Amino acid sequence: MSASEILPLDLDALYRDSNVDASLEALERELIGLAPVKQRVREIAALLLVEKLRRSVGLQAEAPPLHMSFTGNPGTGKTTVAMRMASILHGLGYVRKGHLVAVTRDDLVGQYIGHTAPKTKEVLKRAMGGVLFIDEAYYLYRPENERDYGQEAIEILLQVMENQRDDLVVIFAGYQDRMERFFASNPGLASRVAHHVEFPDYGADELFAIAGLMLDRMQYVLSEPAAKALREYIALRKTRPNFANARSIRNALDRARLRQANRLFERRGGPLTPEMLSTIEGEDIRASRVFNGEEPHP
Q1: CB of 279 within 8 A of CB of 221?
Q2: pTM of the full predicted structure?
Q3: Among candidates 118, 121, 123, which has minimal Cα distance to 101?
């Protein structure tokens, strides 16, 4: 076939047919902020789209490296992005099923000789054809304990990441500084991870917007005093220990709902309106121990 007879390659059609646009749009809806993360996901998606098109005309035989590292503090959306990445990989045909299996060290590492290998292999079996998300992955490696079995799990992971990379994508996640030490101590592992995505903390305005999304999904609203109290709560909570971004906000809203329910129960005797049942008041927020200078709940 001459150059003039080669059919044009339609990247836009591949983009639409793979449903990648739906996954990226869902990411925009589900997560406030995180502009650099969303941009990185779009870049990876673009790479995979182009590589799929290249492979369709025989320009490349091997699949691009897909194993990833997500670094950032708790509650910054790492698991949500991993789920959307699994959808993108499935839409483009890089994984067969597109499901996500999320685990920690306890799911992979045994407590005695001969226990780790079957545990790790069982997790890998469940994840095959999709994405394996290992949270706080650095806990797999504990050099201070010479009798620790985490290294055995790592060795099994390495073999599967290399030999079955066309059927499984592994995403390692955790705090950035600890993940850097983890990869530094495991050169073989580091060499297999091609994409590193950093998740920044949310700003106060972003956290307030996240709270709004959460409340909307639960069909609650904030009164004006409650909205003011929540903004003050966020400013205080961000400075306190164990702050976990969106996770801390969700926990705070759950406790506010609990207080609202108790407030309505204690004042029972008269009729309740749908507005009363769905409104969080300022007192429901301000009852938090954060306003009293006490140590906050997680």
Answers
A1: yes
A2: 0.89
A3: 123
